[in-house]
Design brief:
5 helices; three-stranded antiparallel β-sheet; 3 strands; Arc Repressor Mutant, subunit A; DNA-binding; homodimer; alpha+beta
Chain lengths: 125, 125
DNA sequence: ATCCAGGAGTAGATTGTCTACGTCTATGAG
DNA sequence: CTCATAGACGTAGACAATCTACTCCTGGAT
């Protein structure tokens, strides 16, 4: 029974993240200090109570995107366990971007909230 | 200077909606009573304080999607001004879907909130 | 006559994410 | 020794949702 799901169903069920929020989440994670990709994934997972599970296939393209935009900078370093890892650090313009991402996010959340919990105002059954 | 924007820039600026939320918003609008496409767009725009501007190129595909899923049903009718319009009505399974969409949305908003306003817990400058 | 607003719709481009891989290194088990 | 596993980085291709940019129709104004 484990293989009875169509590709489409699996796709629909696995979407956990809203498009456009990943960049913001990564930048926020880097506000807590420089971090490498693997670490970012785990920080997001833990801090969100296992809700946000970012796949590496989403993460690395996002990190490269952010670096191209100049919002993060990176360098190779050694981890505690003596393995190579690429550490990312948020830049000044990244911090500005984060502020603007957050205000956009809050604007949208508020707008959606006013739809979802808003007063119908028009008499209905 | 009004034409100096690249297609990409324009695209980036015009995204107002998070992917995956449109279906929920449409279903919620229909909870207030049957409505036609044009009316849904305006209801969302007004109720959100001009924040949510849904394009017809997003709306109609979404409505057809919802109908294929059995979450809404539709029929041609005349508006007050005697024009033809396709009125959509939410179904029982659509209402169930709406409940589940909303709880998913709230789960994600909460998770993202716990990242964005969460305690770093680790001492930083 | 013509133009605009209300109304429904499609085609194509673009993007972000996911799945499913591949690669390398360090470490611990057998 | 060698083999599996976990930590770590990365890419290619599929896919869905959205946006832009149209088309088409009708009913009133001007």
């Amino acid at each position: 029974m484990s293989t009875s799901m169509s590709t489409k169903d699996r796709y629909r069920n696995r979407i956990e993240l809203l498009q456009g929020t990943l960049d913001m989440l990564i930048l926020q994670t880097l506000q807590w200090g420089p971090q490498h990709g693997y670490g970012i994934v785990q920080a997001l997972r833990v801090q969100s109570g296992e809700v946000l599970q970012v796949e590496t296939g989403s993460l690395y393209p996002a990190l490269h995107r952010l670096e191209r935009q100049g919002w993060v900078r990176s360098e190779w370093k050694q981890t505690e366990s003596n393995q190579r890892a690429r550490y990312y650090r948020i830049t000044a313009s990244g911090k500005r971007q984060l502020v603007s991402d957050l205000s956009r996010w809050e604007r949208i959340v508020e707008a959606i909230g006013s739809i979802m919990h808003g007063r119908p105002e028009e008499g209905e059954a």
